[in-house]
Amino acid sequence: MLKRLIIALPALLILQMLLPLSISAARIKDIAKIEGVRSNQLVGYGLVIGLNGTGDSNSTQFTVQSLVNMMERLGVTVNQADVKVDNVAAVIVTAKLPPFAKTGTTIDVLVSSIGDADSLVGGSLLMTPLKAPDGNIYAVAQGPLIVGSLAFGGKAAKVQKNHPTVGRLPGGALVEREVPFTLSPDGQLRYQLSDPDFTTVSRIAAVINEHFNRPLATPVDSASLNVDIPLPYRDRLVEFVAALERLPVQPDSTAKIVVNEKTGTIVMGEGVRIATVAVSHGNLNLVISESAMVSQPLPFSGGETVVTPETDIAASEDDGELVVLQMGVSIGDVAQALNAIGATPRDLIAIFQAIKASGALHAELVVL
Questions:
Q1: How far, in Å, CA of 331 to CA of 253, rounded?
Q2: Is the separation of the CB atoms in 41 and 133 below 8 Å?
Q3: What would the pLDDT profile of 135-164 be if each residue is shown by its tens digit?
Q4: Does residue 238 belong to any structural domain of this protein?
Q5: Residue 7 placed within a domain
Q6: Which of 242, 36, 215, 47 is nearest to 126 (CA)?
Q7: Whole domain around residue 224: which residue ranges?
Q8: What is the DSSP-derived secondary structure letter of residue 122?
């Protein structure tokens, strides 16, 4: 039994050393994307009909004009002065065309009112072409809206839940045109990092070369690297990309402290370090109370009541405790030391700004 334990002990130690790395490692597909494989923005102008008196008013001229133009294209001649658009609303339709989307597939669209409509609940979007910046139509949207909201009220009160002038059409647009794209015209893939970093891109290249046992990956800069496609995978490109994106990599990042004084939010990264510094912070409390001194005349004396306002102001400052933070302490030590002096989140923001100004903070301070 003891012999088996001695044999298994080195394996357990190796597993313990590798476990934190595997837990904190990320897949290549989560931190880098193939250059050119991206979504495309689409936009269109349309009309939502079938509203129960919650559409645009007649003062919204572009809604009236759009409705008249649509009726004339359908062969119905109407007088623009006689048109009422209470049940119609002008909207802007937006969508994202995913990469490799094929003709006939469906995509989700977002519908937003641009007039003075009160609600889009119960409405249906008429056929709306969706265009890209190049002016070509890539999808056509049509169908009933899902708003997930309600708004009722009268002249004196109103009840509203969520946002009634924005709705969605899940799968409401049909793709009519594909975006041409070829993965590897020159037998090479270029990956772009979501967060550029020289250390991370070098680690990705090392992991890829080690996995395939050949120098396939070459870093270009902090944000991109080239990957040569091996000859056995030239006809199996999808398989090669899938195997490559599953590789685990330990990403690196710049030490940052992000503070938001409006909400009192503080977020510190793992790599935050400080030099030896002493911190003392005291709170100033100001209390102002107002009262009135009333002087009344004697009965039947014919005098007037005199009211004299009095204001009492008291200022007190809490004792500031001096805490010494040693050089190279971790984020946990920083939090523990600052909590020891009773610092609130807003106090911590002022303390970090002062430490940064003193040059003792070895991290980037981002103020939102």
A1: 15
A2: yes
A3: 999 999 999 998 876 666 655 556 666 778
A4: yes
A5: no
A6: 47
A7: 182-249
A8: T
Average pLDDT over residues 254-263: 82
How many domains, the chain? 3
Q: 81 near 67, Cβ under 8 Å?
A: no
Residue 318 has a CB neighbour count (10 Å cut-off) of 12
* End residue of a domain, out of 141, 175, 209: 175
Q: Say whether 100 sits in a helix, a strand or coil.
A: coil
Tell whether 349 and 290 lie within a shared domain.
Answer: yes
Nearest of 253, 274, 276, 267 to residue 362 by alpha carbon:
274
**How far, in Å, CA of 130 to CA of 232, rounded?**
41
Angle made by CA atoms 327, 330, 335, in degrees to the nearest 5:
105
Alpha-carbon span 332 to 350, nearest angstrom? 19
* Residue pLDDT, tens place only, 197-212: 999 999 999 999 999 9
Cα–Cα–Cα angle for 195, 199, 202, rounded to 5 degrees: 100
Which residue pairs, CB below 8 angstroms and at least 24 apart, start in 111-115?
Answer: 111/46, 111/48, 111/145, 111/166, 111/167, 111/168, 111/169, 112/165, 112/166, 113/48, 113/56, 113/89, 113/165, 113/166, 114/90, 115/55, 115/56, 115/57, 115/60, 115/62, 115/63, 115/89, 115/90
List of E strands, 88-186: 89-97, 106-113, 124-131, 137-144, 150-153, 158-161, 166-175
59 DSSP assignment: T
